[in-house]
Amino acid sequence: MDFLVRLAEGFSGIFNAGGENLMGLVTGILPSLIVLLTAVNALVAMIGEDRVTKFARFTTNNVILRYTVFPVLSVFFLTNPMCYTFGRFLPEKQKPAFYDAAVSFVHPILGLFPHANAGELFVWVGISSGITTLGLSISPLAIRYFLAGLVVILIRGIVTEIITKTMWNDVKASADSKV
């Protein structure tokens, strides 16, 4: 009987802990997320969608900008999962590499800009919980996480672009040899 009581209390405890975590988010990060998301949408409206589009096309002309600035802007402004639609500014051969870079950046951006991937904020909270438990600032960790993410997305974008071009050429060569 004691075992069943402990099991029931443990089961209820899971939901109590989840509720406490939710209340912490509601009183802590959610108001910031709402204000930040509103500010980003207002900024895009003030700049103008046409100007944002022209700038996006400009950043895709250079390989380094294409796999650093462009994914960062897409994740920041459109957030996950809408950020992948920025791929429309790229030729077909570069879309897989852009997607790889953007999808790899939806977590490193969380420490500085939690609105970008609010649905998975628990990843950042889990990573930074040790720092906050010690009473230290999480800002240095957030900056390092962001910078490491930039390096990773650049490498992934370039490597994936090379792989895609190689596969694209192999498919084209195979199709040409059948003709």
Task: Spell out the key features of this protein.
single chain, 179 residues, mainly alpha, 8 helices, 0% strand, extended
- Largest beta sheet, briefly? none
Broad structural category: mainly alpha
Helical content band: over 70%
| Rg value | 21 Å
Q: Average pLDDT value? A: 86
End-to-end Cα distance, whole Å, is 77 Å
Number of DSSP strands? 0
Number of helices: 8
Q: What's the SSE pattern?
A: HHHHHHHH
Strand residues, percent: under 5%
Protein name: PTS glucitol/sorbitol transporter subunit IIC
Keywords: Membrane, Transmembrane, Transmembrane helix
Pfam families: EII-GUT
InterPro entries: PTS_IID_sorb
SSE blueprint:
Elements: H1 2-27, H2 29-47, H3 49-59, H4 63-66, H5 69-78, H6 95-105, H7 121-133, H8 139-178
Describe the model.
With 179 residues, the chain is an all-alpha fold. It is 75% helix and 0% strand. It has helices at residues 2-27, 29-47, 49-59, 63-66, 69-78, 95-105, 121-133, 139-178. The longest helix is centred in the last third of the chain and has 40 residues, at 139-178. The model has no long low-confidence stretch (mean pLDDT 86).
Please provide a brief summary of the model.
The protein is mainly alpha-helical and 179 residues long.
